[in-house]
């Protein structure tokens, strides 16, 4: 287990503040980047306010993977307890990512864990359930969170910076971290770049579900129900490809299909 501790040399203060005054940070967007930011800032002694336009981000997304470079940060939270919660619901019994042609012919396989110690740092599972664990930990830390209200403007003066909410409320702080994703208002404000949509020519059809009795009885799906090994497959076809995951004895299933 990682024993990393927060680099809290400033105790949440900076040189531009009166001694002992805590830095106030506003984070816009409660995706995994935003949630990680609020958790890390709060752990370092800052006062954090999170603003998110959606009422419940746990309802969005199907699958997400975190690998060791990100997971080692999570493993440091609450002496590894947050990582334990994630591992309880994530893929933990996979040995390989299998790569195949669209015909089913095996091409290659990569080890799911590059190194044995990555088991603690690697999380792949249902996005909503994983996000809720992040949100719950932020709540335990005492982060002030506002859901269901969007940011319509950003402002900055000599003394403060902040955001304006859709209901007209102004929130001020010492800095704003914008993690507002696609259609970012902050990107347009800060970089003066229009958020122009570019069509890649491809779309994604994806689904997360729990295996039904009909699924369990299908002869071609038995390998996805192995209680001793989680399954991860990647098919490559003409101008398209597909991923499929199953874990916890096949009770959890995700597939993602990329197509023109």
TrEMBL record:
Keyword check for Oxidoreductase: yes
Gene Ontology MF: a single term: FAD binding
InterPro entries reported in the protein's UniProt record: FAD-bd, FAD-dep_Monooxygenase_BioMet, FAD/NAD-bd_sf
Key words, A-Z: FAD, Flavoprotein, Monooxygenase, Oxidoreductase
Domain FAD-binding: 23-232
The UniProt record lists the keyword Nucleotide-binding: no
Family that this chain belongs to: Belongs to the paxM FAD-dependent monooxygenase family.
The protein's name in its UniProt record: FAD-binding domain-containing protein
């Amino acid at each position: 287990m990682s024993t990393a501790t927060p680099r809290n040399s400033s105790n949440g203060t900076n040189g531009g503040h009166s001694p002992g005054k805590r830095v106030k940070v506003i984070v816009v967007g409660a995706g995994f980047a935003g949630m990680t930011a609020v958790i890390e800032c709060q752990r370092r002694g800052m006062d954090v306010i999170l603003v998110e336009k959606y009422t419940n981000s746990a309802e969005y997304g199907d699958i997400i993977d975190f690998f060791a470079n990100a997971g080692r940060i999570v493993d440091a939270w609450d002496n590894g307890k947050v990582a334990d919660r994630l591992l309880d619901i994530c893929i933990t019994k996979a040995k390989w990512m299998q790569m195949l042609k669209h015909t089913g012919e095996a091409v290659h396989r990569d080890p799911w864990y590059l190194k044995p110690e990555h088991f603690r740092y690697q999380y792949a599972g249902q996005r909503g359930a994983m996000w809720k664990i992040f949100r719950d930990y932020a709540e335990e830390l005492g982060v002030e969170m506002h859901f269901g209200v969007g940011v319509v403007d950003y402002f900055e003066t000599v003394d403060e910076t902040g955001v304006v909410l859709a209901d007209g409320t102004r929130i001020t702080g010492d800095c704003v971290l914008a993690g507002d994703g696609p259609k970012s208002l902050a990107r347009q404000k800060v970089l003066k770049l229009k958020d122009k949509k570019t069509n890649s020519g491809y779309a994604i059809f994806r689904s997360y579900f729990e295996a039904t009795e009909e699924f369990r009885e299908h002869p071609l799906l038995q390998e996805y129900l192995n209680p001793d090994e989680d399954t991860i497959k990647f098919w490559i076809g003409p101008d398209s490809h597909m991923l499929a995951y199953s874990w916890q004895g096949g009770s959890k299933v995700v597939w993602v299909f990329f197509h023109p």
